[in-house]
Amino acid sequence: MHNTILFCLFFFLPAAQPITSKLDEGWWAYKDVVQGSFVPVPSFWGLVNSAWNLCAIGKRQSPIDIETSHMIFDPYLTPLRLNTGGHKMGGTMYNTGKHVSLRPDKAHLVNISGGPLGYSYRLEEVRIHFGSEDSQGSEHLLNGQGFPGEVQLIHYNQDLYANYSEAAKSPHGIAVVSIFIKLSENSNAFLNRMLNRDTITRINYKHDAFLLMGLNIADLYPDTTRYITYEGSITIPPCYETSTWILINKPVYVTQMQMHSLRLLSQNEPYKIFLSMSDNTRPTQPLLQRCIRTNINFSKQGRDCPNNRALRPQYRGNMKGTRRGSSGVVSA
Ligand SMILES: *[C@@H]1O[C@H](CO)[C@@H](O)[C@H](O)[C@H]1NC(C)=O
Ligand SMILES: *[C@@H]1O[C@H](CO)[C@@H](O)[C@H](O)[C@H]1NC(C)=O
Ligand SMILES: *[C@@H]1O[C@H](CO)[C@@H](O)[C@H](O)[C@H]1NC(C)=O
């Protein structure tokens, strides 16, 4: 069946496109480009490249819609441990054409452990997803609701693997800490370093890079030990199903101005047409047989899976006027 779809797809491609030469790791997109050549959007990722077939046929894909009624309280989930060695870090911020990406330099390593993780994981990249409107932009949804954005702290298993690329395709390879972004008058201190006008405008175009020093990754973490966790995949091709996801139960905040600056970033080089980077999100994937566990003690404990405990979210993704730091994404 997939072959048929593939055949049709290639049959209708603009003529004289050398397909094979396009089968490289960057040949994918989040949305259709009105002008220019065909680039596969999420529904085609798994069909255009056999190395990416998990994107189409995988059963543990990310992101997902977190339905809080399906969460299971797991009293054995300890708090996540962040280890910076007490040092600030430097990093290079990039416009990759698809995301705002910050890669820490090798001098000051940051790792996480504990929580659902059986190993120590080293921070590889901080990645920002965001929407063209305030009601969308996060990859994960909460009871069907999106948030204006989502920060993903991508780590690899440094106990078992030499580097990110080896870990990404291997069991227990990746741990992603995910934090929803909401809008407020004040900005998270870490995100403010990345998103203030002087800094963000340095990476307006694809391949732009800008060095930042004296960053404290602990500033990015909201003040809570509560999280939601499940086993999933990386959310870009090749969609390897090697990621433990940890969604922090409080959002971080950016200003409306900073969100506006993000939306002004281009997916393209300066000499090409402006194409906003916003809505750089993969649609949610089916949960299927997986469990969503949490250390939020919202009711009597239960270790059965799946279960159907009712749980009321404290507020919705795009609701205004929530005081900074006042409440969790989900309330106990
Ligand atoms: C969870 O909350 C219930 C009710 O408040 C309490 O009785 C129980 O001890 C708590 N469990 C844990 C592991 O904290
Ligand atoms: C984790 O990071 C801390 C601080 O940089 C470091 O001391 C520790 O050795 C690291 N753990 C591993 C397993 O590398
Ligand atoms: C990652 O580690 C593997 C195994 O040690 C090695 O073969 C590969 O070249 C490394 N890749 C990068 C990008 O460093």
TrEMBL record:
The keyword Signal is assigned to this record: yes
Q: Which GO terms describe its molecular function?
A: carbonate dehydratase activity; zinc ion binding
Q: Where is this region: Disordered?
A: 303-332
InterPro entries recorded for this chain?
Alpha_CARP_X/XI, CA_dom, CA_dom_sf, Carbonic_anhydrase_a-class
UniProt entry keywords in alphabetical sequence: Signal
Under the heading Gene3D superfamilies, the entry gives: Alpha carbonic anhydrase
Tell me which PROSITE patterns the record gives: ALPHA_CA_2
* SMART domains in alphabetical order: Carb_anhydrase
The organism sits in which domain of life?
Eukaryota
Q: Enumerate the Gene Ontology biological process terms.
A: one-carbon metabolic process; swimming behavior
Which residue spans traverse the membrane? none
Enumerate the spans annotated as Alpha-carbonic anhydrase domain.
26-296
Annotated signal sequence range: 1-18
Q: What does this protein do?
A: Does not have a catalytic activity.
**Family the UniProt entry places it in:** Belongs to the alpha-carbonic anhydrase family.
Q: What is this protein called?
A: Carbonic anhydrase 10
Query: What organism, scientifically named, is this protein from?
Result: Amphilophus citrinellus
